[in-house]
Design brief:
The structure holds two protein chains of two kinds. Chain A has 13 helices and 15 strands. Chain A is of the alpha/beta class. The longest helix of chain A is centred in the middle third of the chain and has 18 residues, at about 115-135. Chain A is elongated and about 95 Å long. The chains are: A alpha/beta, B alpha/beta.
Chain lengths: ~375, ~210
């Protein structure tokens, strides 16, 4: 049997691009290089702040692209309508595990312009569809950063203490929240709701009523905004996969509102991250709002790690007497019967084949 | 089946005891054997012993769904995991220690010997103190005695080793204890079982606290 030319990861990319195209996203192609200055001004937005740089022939300091979103924003203009762009690019950055630079295939969408609740919902729905293409067993964790910030900013004015509390929330570290509150004299009525927010996670329809009550006096508008966006999943068949989880946290200098992370079973880290990044747009002097997400294809290697038992179906071992046309004809027959073929005069090292066919030439055959 | 990474050694045995009393025993774990992996299918748990500093790696990379790691390791390596519970076991302190009578000369860069470079860097950065880190893997205490460094940043349990080497704690950085950690993806798909263990362990910890 012929091995499929495209592996599962590649087939997934095409399926995701189909989804993007169906929703009106157009493919955005870009250069591998970008002015380093763009990244140095927005280092905290990057997954890793280490960037491969080089000086080009004109003396400009360039970088191998560590991120796609910044380039897209830089190269698009403000619009009162909505610009839908998708990409499929290699990026170059330090991998968390190995602490070395690596090339990572990333695909995703960016939606820029007049972003309303319906578009946020559409983006969440598309993210869920993408996860559904990757695996039947997926969870999309959704949060509203503005809700978390409301609780944190109510507890303390100190940016440092707020960051410490946000870090604890990101790690579901309730004992850590209590320790920070004890250390900085934050009263129980302000500490307890934060702990409750961390504990409050699960299927969105189950969690929403409690969340709306918890947010009633603090940030009901933001809670309602989350509820309205999640309403997109009603009757979609995805509802069980969609969870509210406030441990989804992104840098508040860039992100705001709805943020989300997607997980698939057996892959140890999130494979999809996204959210609204109006603050990044403002930092880059854009008045448009924006939302988008990225799918990290390098994370899918493990999911699609199907062992291939053979390098080819048939090893055709031929000798000196076999002519080129004889060999070609034999291979054509084998390939036509659906088999992959590897020709060699000697058995290649470290290769495995389902079967071996020996071909002798006329001289040797007679001999 | 939930995969649980436990730290080898005395702390690991205390941690296992806590899990067993919480309703997730695996008696074979305490047998004198060279085996490293132990299963109790009835309790749906599979334990394995790993080097304490490796627990967070096993959990972060998903080879273990949950595990128990020291706060020192979590601060030093900042793994992307959930920190679900302070088990209040193996309590000690991350501290700066120096030879008795040491006085910090602010005109000079402070030389610091430690196994915990990131913790030391973060601590002194917050203080605005310029330092020169000397990363060592053991016997940290002898560094200031031999003039290699001015101070050390290390874990202090009883302080006996420091005293024997004529060192004393001059600053406390952070309290340390064992923490229950979980892989972020495993938490999504094995949440019921993880939360069941978490609830029981929290109960056991509170009882021991009282």
């Amino acid at each position: 049997m012929n091995t499929p030319i495209l592996n599962r990861s590649e087939r997934t990319v095409f399926a995701l691009r189909r989804l993007y195209a169906d929703r009106g996203y157009t493919l955005y192609r870009m250069s591998k290089f970008e002015e380093y200055d763009l990244y140095s001004r927005n280092k905290d937005f990057l997954v890793s702040d280490q960037v491969i740089t080089f000086t080009d022939t004109t003396g400009r300091l360039l970088a191998l692209k560590p991120d796609v979103t910044l380039s897209i924003i830089k190269n698009t203009v403000d619009t009162d309508a909505v610009e839908r762009l998708c990409y499929h690019e290699n990026v170059y950055r330090v991998s968390g595990g190995s602490n070395r630079f690596c090339e990572i295939m990333q695909t995703g969408v960016e939606c820029i312009g007049d972003i309303d609740t319906a578009l946020v919902g559409e983006n969440l729905y598309l993210a869920a569809q993408c996860l559904g293409v990757i695996s039947d067993e997926f969870v999309l964790n959704v949060s509203n950063l503005d809700i978390l910030l409301s609780f944190v900013e109510r507890a303390t004015d100190s940016r440092t203490v707020q960051d410490a509390l946000i870090d604890c929330v990101a790690h579901k570290n309730i004992h850590g929240i209590r320790a920070v509150c004890d250390q900085f004299g934050i009263e129980e009525p302000l500490c307890a709701p934060l702990c409750a927010l961390v504990s409050l996670c699960g299927q969105y329809e189950t969690v929403l009523p409690t969340l709306l009550t918890l947010c009633a006096d603090v940030c009901i508008e933001q809670a309602q905004e989350l509820a309205d966006a999640l309403a997109v999943f009603e009757g979609s068949g995805y509802a069980d996969h969609i969870h509210i989880d406030f441990s989804v946290v992104s840098d508040r200098s860039y992100y705001n509102g709805i943020i989300f992370k997607g997980f698939v079973n057996t892959v140890p880290d999130s494979v999809l991250t996204g959210g609204q990044y109006d603050r990044l747009m403002q930092r880059m002097q854009r008045r448009s709002r924006a939302i988008g997400f990225a799918v990290y294809l390098d994370m899918l290697e493990r999911l699609y790690d199907e062992p291939i038992p053979y390098d080819a179906d048939v090893l055709v071992l031929y000798d000196e007497g076999v002519s080129a046309d004889m060999l070609r004809a034999r291979c054509d027959v084998l390939i036509a019967s659906g088999k992959s073929v590897y020709t060699s005069k000697t058995v290649p090292l470290k290769r495995r084949f389902r079967e071996v066919i020996r071909m002798k030439g006329e001289v040797n055959a007679r001999g | 089946m939930l995969n649980i990474a436990l730290p080898k050694g005395r702390l690991g045995e205390q941690v296992y005891d806590r899990f067993a009393r919480a309703g997730f025993p695996c008696p074979a774990l305490l047998e004198d054997t060279r085996k490293l992996i132990f299963e109790n299918p009835d309790a749906m748990v599979r334990y394995f012993w790993v080097k304490p500093s490796d627990v967070a790696i096993y959990v972060e990379r998903g080879a273990a769904d949950i595990g128990v790691a020291g706060k020192d390791i979590l601060l030093e390596y900042a793994p992307e995991v959930y920190e679900l519970l302070d088990l209040e076991l193996g309590r000690c302190t991350m501290a700066v220690a120096a030879p008795s009578g040491f006085r910090d000369d602010m005109r000079r860069t402070l030389r610091v010997a430690t196994k915990f470079s990131h913790i030391a860097e973060d601590y002194y950065a917050a203080c605005g103190r310029d330092i020169d880190i000397v990363h060592l893997n053991g016997s940290i205490e002898i560094a200031p005695i031999l003039g290699l460094t001015d101070v050390i940043v290390d874990i202090v349990e009883t302080g006996a080793t420091l005293r024997e080497n004529r060192l004393e704690v001059i600053e406390t950085i952070v309290p340390i204890s064992a923490r229950l950690i979980a892989n972020k993806s495993s938490f999504q798909f094995k949440r019921t079982q993880i939360e069941c263990i978490l609830t029981q362990l929290r109960k056991e910890t509170e009882e021991n606290h009282d």
